[in-house]
Structure to design on (544 residues):
């Protein structure tokens, strides 16, 4: 991965995982440590940048609503740096190929003839619920799981999600992004026959010290979310597996959860 | 995590990821390094055991058809070791909460009052396709992904998967396990109106040096799998995203893929 070994650069599309530094993969850490350039999203935990070389160029790519760097600008940046022979880490929250436009970036890079590698990451769709004591599957409850994005407005006629089919399929369903559309999503599910007492949980800042979980039913969760002003970033889980949390909620019971702990520079460098 | 700090033991339900050692998380590696006892499945890459302490007790839990250790025996083993004050890693392929009975084991451990931690892992359902150049999502193709197990016989009347709803929902669909039922699964999908030319890919021994991918359509994939004797462990992906592989197939083009490389003990210990 050293610069001298490559005439052209290379882009590593790297999943930073859901937030907990322990859930970063060995390969992701290695890529970050070796990179000439790191281009990161707002959903990637910035603490991983502590592993970067002192002379690495670190670029924040934003992607929050209202921020100015467009997808086209990000892609152009990656291509320009790669043509300069750089080893580039494109760091994305969760997994690079689960929502979040990683596939489109990979296509542009591949089409430009630039070598690339995909480094899958732990998605918050699975780890978020797991840290709230909610397994994706359980033999007694389901044999399938569906991930969908709440980013699209479900009242738009061109919405790509068929809520009638989703309701009929059942199983565990996880919504990434789009907490602001939760009221419309739950109305659609109810309208298509999903039972009102289906357990639902929202997990916010999942896997970090700021993790918070809100539980309810399909009928009342949107109201609870509004009442508590429970904002993004959050994943929502719909399904009977949510009821297992009573027994399996291991992470939020930890005594130090949510506490701020000051770690000196020296210890922080040694950690993990 | 030291033994002296705990009167009772603790069980770490750890995902070993899909096979590539680089896709193991930092926390999983740390748990393996510290464990008194490691109980592992046949789907977990045994190379990770190289990180265990020299005096760690390593127990193979099997779980292939015909093997004798039952789920009840495995759970009893975990509880007995924990009551002896041991730090136990229960190592599972992929993610412990995505199929594979991790939820049931966690319930038994929790009910017994034994402390536990969940360490999510990279699931082969996502990383397998990614290493074959197939993203789970792409804005132009889908806004949802469904994972289901092919383990159940779809002709059984009590089958939990509603293939009519699955067909109607569309999106990307990933089948874990059950390659031997692929003919029945594809027949069910065709019967419920999924188009015969839907791209399908099977990825076998995903993310390892032995990775192989077989592509086809919903109409012909079962026949191809039978003709090539393409056996487990494999994940199957159904969806238009499979067509992106032509451009995005990065891993299988590597010059050393599938080659056996002898690494001396000393170098192997230093690696990663």
């Amino acid at each position: 991965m050293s610069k001298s070994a490559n005439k052209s650069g290379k882009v590593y599309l790297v999943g930073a995982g859901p937030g907990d530094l322990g859930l970063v993969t060995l390969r992701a850490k290695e890529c970050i440590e070796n990179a000439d350039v790191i281009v990161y999203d707002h959903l990637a935990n910035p603490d991983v940048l502590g592993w970067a070389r002192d002379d690495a160029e670190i670029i924040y790519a934003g992607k929050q609503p209202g921020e100015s760097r467009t997808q086209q600008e990000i892609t152009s940046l990656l291509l320009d740096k790669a043509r300069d022979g750089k080893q580039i880490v494109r760091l994305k929250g969760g997994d690079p190929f689960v929502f979040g436009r990683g596939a489109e970036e990979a296509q542009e890079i591949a089409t430009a003839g630039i070598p690339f590698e995909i480094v899958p990451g732990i998605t918050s769709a699975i780890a978020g619920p797991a840290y709230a004591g909610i397994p994706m599957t359980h033999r007694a409850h389901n044999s399938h799981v569906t991930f969908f994005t709440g980013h699209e407005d479900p009242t738009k006629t061109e919405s790509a999600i068929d809520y009638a089919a989703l309701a009929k399929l059942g199983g565990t369903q996880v919504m990434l992004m789009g907490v602001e559309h939760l009221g419309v999503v739950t109305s659609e599910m109810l309208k298509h026959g999903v039972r009102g007492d289906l357990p639902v949980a929202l997990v916010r800042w999942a896997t970090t010290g700021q993790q918070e979980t809100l539980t309810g039913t399909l009928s009342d969760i949107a109201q609870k979310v509004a009442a508590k002003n429970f904002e993004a970033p959050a994943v929502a889980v719909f399904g009977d597996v949510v009821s297992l949390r009573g027994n399996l909620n291991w992470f939020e019971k930890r005594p130090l959860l949510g506490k701020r702990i000051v770690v000196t520079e020296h210890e922080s460098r040694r950690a993990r």
Observations:
- Residues 1-6, 267-272 of chain A have pLDDT under 50 and may be disordered.
- The first strand of chain A starts at residue 10 and ends at 15.
- DSSP finds nine helices and ten strands in chain A.
